[in-house]
């Protein structure tokens, strides 16, 4: 019997689904050095990642830095495998799944090489999951990086990939840190929190029939009294939607939901559109609670555990066009009309257009110019 021919046949049949990688191309920068690669994706094998990450995280956070953790899970991979098994005579189902994961690994490795992380790595996490861990300088920048990876994977794979993420800082470290055992317990707690966020949002999406490819953020509770405001994401602006896992808390004797976002400045808060599971969308006022965003009025029934929400910015009401004489006066003074809150703009435009005489109109334009100049000199925060 020609065993060599059989071996060549086996290697040939596996070559399309189990690629071989150069270990020097592992997606890591400083973290998890010396790790083995996962033979299917070319990412760091989870056992080595799990062994090294606690040490890397502890060093970064105790040194005053921040870290981002993101877990991505392929949406509908089981259905893709079953469909391939039923419709493709040249490909049994699990081979199709292997091809998806191999492509996921290739895209992730290329993406990771292009990131400006000070340190970090990308590893496997479960059968169809990828995990990103990195030392970061800005939560918003890390969110954008993960969104870029999500978009690249959507373009390259037959299935979307959903992510969940969390940002951690020194204020999240446990108060008692004797020896080294705390590092693994702390890291496992972080991974569990992000994983729960991912599964909660995926379950909510399936229940509502929504599409995959979302990114959800969760907040890690701070050590008592610690300031972790630098590790919070900004509230959504423009047309973006921010998916979050909100945590119930008490605010002035009422149930409120803490968001993984920085709270708005000012006493009036900021209005946002919030989509609740099974309840729908409502407009809520977000306030700051010790620097963290919170929704004091929540939809019924009152939540007893973390709640997956979608946040959207509310567009300011459209303002009528600025009259030519006012625009010319603003240009001469070098002032920006947009510094005024929308309601003040509306009031001033009404006064100008309703002026009984040209003299009154000119005086009111002068008053508007003075008001805009005051806002430039002493800017106020407004929603």
Within the largest sheet, what's the order of strands?
7-8-11-10-9-12
Helix fraction?
25-40%
Report the total helices: 9
DSSP, total strands: 12
Using only CA atoms, what is the Rg? Answer: 26 Å
User: Could you tell me the mean pLDDT?
Assistant: 85
Amino- and carboxy-terminal Cα gap: 79 Å
Beta-strand portion reads: 15-25%
Main sheet characteristics: 6 strands, antiparallel, barrel
What is the 3D form?
elongated
Protein structure class: alpha+beta
Q: What are the low-pLDDT stretches, counting only 5+ consecutive residues below 50?
A: 1-19
Order of helices and strands: HEHEHHEEHEHEEEEEEEHHH
Structure commentary:
By secondary structure, this protein is of the alpha+beta class. Helix content is 39%, strand content 22%. It has a 6-stranded antiparallel β-barrel with strand order 7-8-11-10-9-12. A hairpin with a 4-residue loop joins β3 and β4 (129-136). The longest helix is centred in the middle third of the chain and has 28 residues, at 181-208. The radius of gyration is 26 Å and the shape is elongated.
